[in-house]
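Regression check, AR6 case 204:
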Amino acid sequence: GSVPLDDIPVWTPTAGASTPSRYLRNETLDQKISVYSGDITKLEIDAIVNAANKSLLGGGGVDGAIHRAAGPLLKNECASLHGCETGEAKITCGYGLPAKYVIHTVGPIAQGGVGERERRALRSCYWNSLQTATENAARSVAFPCISTGIYGYPPEQAVHEALAAVREFLDAHHDKLDRVIFCVFLPTDKELYLQNLPLYFPPG
Ligand code: AR6
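Current build output:
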């Protein structure tokens, strides 16, 4: 079955995490954040983000799972979009998914290492996905760990770009979003998010 957004608990900072943060405490923002372990295709939410490739015509990983769950009409709409550049985002309907929309973004390929170019592109994926969501009045958005699978971006570096981009977007546009869900698939990614969230959403 699918998972209603109301069943996903909001993240609460763990007492004891006391790494100094460059961000200010903001309880309003904290209450919009969740870490959810599981399949992003099951979420009843306004928008899920797809870690796509430039063709937008489908592939393996989370992209494959989203296309399988949405059904063939998703590919038809994707084919009409003429691809997507790295770091950018394009929106479609969700078709057979419980999510209303799919936001397709293309992460950087990190073979050959991560430099400033890859870091910027990955941040843009998160920022532009949220921008696209809010332009379409989507108030709840779930992200997979973009680029950290087939595209080889080290998860322990990617988490910082993800969290910084979401924190900064919420600082600028918190009134346009109710919930941002980090949908993690691997136990190691769950740990990385729980470890690093207090750096970007510091407790009191
Ligand atoms: N729900 C949530 N997360 C998932 C799911 C799922 N159902 N399935 C996998 N993941 P990847 P990339 C996680 O490889 O690195 C495709 O072929 C997975 O464990 O899907 O951006 C595209 O067409 C990992 O943490 O995306 C592109 O060609 C994360 O999703 C290329 O792969 C991202 O892994 C994009 O590679």
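Comparison notes: Residues 39-41, 51-53, 59-63, 65, 107, 144-151, 183, 185-186, 189 surround AR6 (CB under 6 Å). The helical segments are 27-30, 61-70, 72-79, 116-135, 155-173, 187-200. No diff flagged against the previous build.
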